[in-house]
Amino acid sequence: MKLVTKRSRKTGLPPGTLVHIGENKTGKVTIATFNYAGTRCDERQDPPLDGLAPPTDGSVTWVDVGGVHKMEILESFGKQFQLHSLLLEDIANTDQRPKFDDYDQHFFVVLKMLSLNERQDVLVEQVSLVLGRNFVLSFQENGTDVFHSVRERLRAGKGRLRQAGADYLLYALVDAIVDQYFAVLEAVGEKIESLQHIVVTDPTPETLREIHALKRQLLFLRRAVWPLRDVMNNLSRSECPFLEQGTKVFIRDVYDHVVQIIDTIETLREMVSASLDIYLSSVSYRLNAVMRVLTVITTIFMPLSFIASIYGMNFEHMPELKSEWGYPVVLGIMAVVGVGMLAAFRKKRWI
Description:
The chain is 52% helix and 15% strand. The protein is α+β, with helices and mostly antiparallel strands. The protein has helices spanning 71-81, 85-92, 148-156, 166-201, 205-225, 228-236, 245-310, 326-347, and strands at 30-37, 40-45, 60-66, 99-102, 107-116, 122-131, 135-140.
């Protein structure tokens, strides 16, 4: 996850120029189509590009594209579905902020899809959705999506998905992405709770690295989710003729979920910041404890060193030098002084 994506390749180019901005990829672009109406649902994998077009028989078509790094494929979609050049340019730029654009004949929505890898690190992928009167186009940056449940509902004919229009399909796709946010935040929350226990009991330098990694992940989560609140709000208030009023009710429900997710992210950020404060306090307390012990030891030995230094002077006439009990008496005095100072420190609760 990079905070800043390089866009220098677009410098000086006219608006609408298709330039892929993002991670360099050379893999195959996958295309899957669903055409459904009522009890019928036809699914195809990697159909010919020249055969893709908006349906004219009252059915709904969903074209799911995995990969946006081949500009010739985007140009083909632009011609077949009459997409605006600025819309295609935004699809090719994978560093877009979540947004909603109204192109009269099309609605364009950009979201960030979140997922977890094997190490439970958060992965961010851009998804672009295009809504037409009777079709939906979804363009995924990497093709590792969370739309499996939507596909299964279409195949099985469960719910109202087959009976509704393309606007309801758009809602279903957005809802699947937002639901995945809860799963990601749950995993991140568990890591933060485990980290807080370590911070209190046994903080190490590795703990500090984990705290900074979590702060970075939450920063990306906030950037991915925060603008989505305005996107859902604008979409629910749109006056588009092919966005039915009944679907807007479901979109407002997604809006409520997004607000809840934003609140959760802010809470997790505060927990991580508190963990950092606890870590610094724990390290400082341990250092103070060590310094207190060393200070007590040094203070106890100061008068003992003073006594020893007196009898280490090379004077010929000293009363105790010729005494038979001089040596044990001095050692006894030193022991009494040391034990007395230790008892005084304990009484004052300094140790």
